[in-house]
UniProtKB/TrEMBL annotation:
Main location: membrane
Residues covered by the ABC transmembrane type-1 domain: 164-373
Region (Disordered): 1-33
Source organism: Streptomyces marincola
GO BP field: phosphate ion transmembrane transport
Free-text function comment from the UniProt entry: Part of the binding-protein-dependent transport system for phosphate; probably responsible for the translocation of the substrate across the membrane.
Taxonomic placement: Bacteria, Bacillati, Actinomycetota, Actinomycetes, Kitasatosporales
Gene3D superfamilies for the chain: MetI-like
Protein name stated in the entry: Phosphate transport system permease protein PstA
GO cellular component, as recorded: plasma membrane
Pfam families the UniProt entry points to: BPD_transp_1
Keyword hit for Protein biosynthesis: no
Family of the protein in this entry: Belongs to the binding-protein-dependent transport system permease family. CysTW subfamily.
Entry's localization field: Cell membrane
Keyword Chaperone: no
Length: 386
């Protein structure tokens, strides 16, 4: 028993101590030699992958967009051209990146290519609409078109002065009704509403957001028919119909802006014994003014091109009528629709040109309102100290 133990002890001692003559022991005890061996191994292992040139992705995209355009011009249609451009760009950029940048870099390039292709595909209908409207509407987009009405015009000539003024009047009155109601509702929901009434108002605002525009027109027509009889048409009815569509948009936008006002500002005002209503007027609303104004502008842009409710409630007229409480009025959307739908067979081009010019005017008004909204948000946003 003691002999075995002694033998094991000697063996362990010889193994642990060693004489330094076994292969590899000297290498392990020499830091310089160990570093050389590690460098020799790591030299053959790429720790990082290469990367594509900075302009590789945009140039590849441009090349396949050109290829898709050639497919379109060859007579295969825009849909096939768009598919060729999107699929070809995604496949090539993924394969190229997989070879140069490795699997992880290739996957990142693949996702970026898919997002870029989806964005461009979504942009195609918008570009197509704008291009078509501008090319077709430029024929009559002149001073005569905006200074003349259709009164006394049979075929050629005429303009949309009455429709432009009617659009501004009807939409302006709708904004005058919608903005106070929507803003007051949003203030109540954020600052005061906590019970069932607030939940009920929120529910009805959500429902009104999804109401089809023609339903709003039918509702307003049925309401005014009770007081004025069947066949009633006037500009004020159109304003009420548009306000039904505008109010939920104003409520939602104002509500979100009021939520962004820091509670610290309210609490600081309350700490100075300022009443709640005065805090709302002097602190909350000025802080959220830029966002509220932007939401109101976008709400106006959303309803200014409505056709169905105005066709039911306002109708159309050939001459100027600036009184929204007296008879029918003309609006740009209904004017464009009637010019296109009632064009006779012998003078279609004149009617079509007027319809496209009215559509171009509407697009320019909507684009202007969106630019105004961005300008308001930029100029009147609360300034923060760096």
């Amino acid at each position: 028993m003691s002999t075995s133990t002694t033998s094991l002890g000697k063996g362990d001692g010889n193994h642990d101590g060693g004489d330094g003559n076994e292969p590899g022991n000297g290498d392990l005890n020499d830091p310089g030699r160990a570093r050389e061996q590690a460098n020799a191994v790591l030299t053959d292992v790429p720790l990082t992958h290469g990367s594509l040139p900075r302009r590789a992705a945009p140039l590849t995209l441009l090349a396949f967009v050109a290829a898709g355009a050639l497919v379109w011009l060859a007579g295969f249609g825009p849909v096939l051209g768009a598919i060729v451009a999107a699929v070809g760009y995604t496949a090539v950029i993924y394969g190229w990146s997989r070879r140069v940048e490795g699997r992880r870099g290739a996957f990142d390039r693949f996702v970026t290519a898919v997002v870029t292709s989806a964005f461009l595909l979504a942009l195609l209908p918008l570009i197509s609409v704008i291009t078509t409207v501008v090319s077709r509407g430029a024929a009559r987009f002149d001073a005569d078109f905006f200074n003349n009405s259709m009164l006394g015009v049979v075929n050629e000539g005429g303009g949309a002065h009455h429709a432009l003024m009617g659009t501004l009047i009807v939409t302006g009155m709708a904004a005058l009704m919608s903005v106070p109601i929507g803003l007051m509702t949003a203030i109540y929901l954020i600052e005061y509403g906590r019970g069932r009434l607030a939940r009920g108002i929120t529910f009805f605002v959500d429902v009104m957001t999804g109401i089809p525009s023609i339903v709003a027109g039918l509702f307003v027509y049925a309401l005014f028919e009770l007081f004025y009889g069947p066949g009633i048409r006037m500009g004020f009815m159109g304003s009420v119909a548009l306000s039904v569509l505008m109010i939920p948009v104003v409520v939602r936008s104002a509500e979100e802006m009021l939520k962004l006002v820091p509670n610290e500002l309210r609490e600081a005002s309350y700490a100075l014994a300022v009443p709640k209503w005065r805090t709302i007027v002097k602190v909350v609303l000025p802080t959220a003014l830029a966002g509220i104004a932007t939401g109101v502008t976008l709400a106006i842009a959303r309803v200014i091109g409505e056709t169905a409710p105005l066709l039911i409630t306002v109708g159309i007229t050939r001459g100027d009528n600036f009184n929204p409480f007296d008879e029918r009025m003309a609006t740009l959307s209904v004017y464009s629709y009637t010019q296109y739908s009632t064009a006779p067979g012998f003078a279609q081009e004149a009617f079509f040109d007027r319809a496209w010019s009215a559509a171009l005017a509407l697009i320019l008004i909507v684009m202007t309102l969106n630019l105004v909204a961005r300008l308001i948000a930029k100029l009147f946003a609360p300034k923060t100290r760096a």
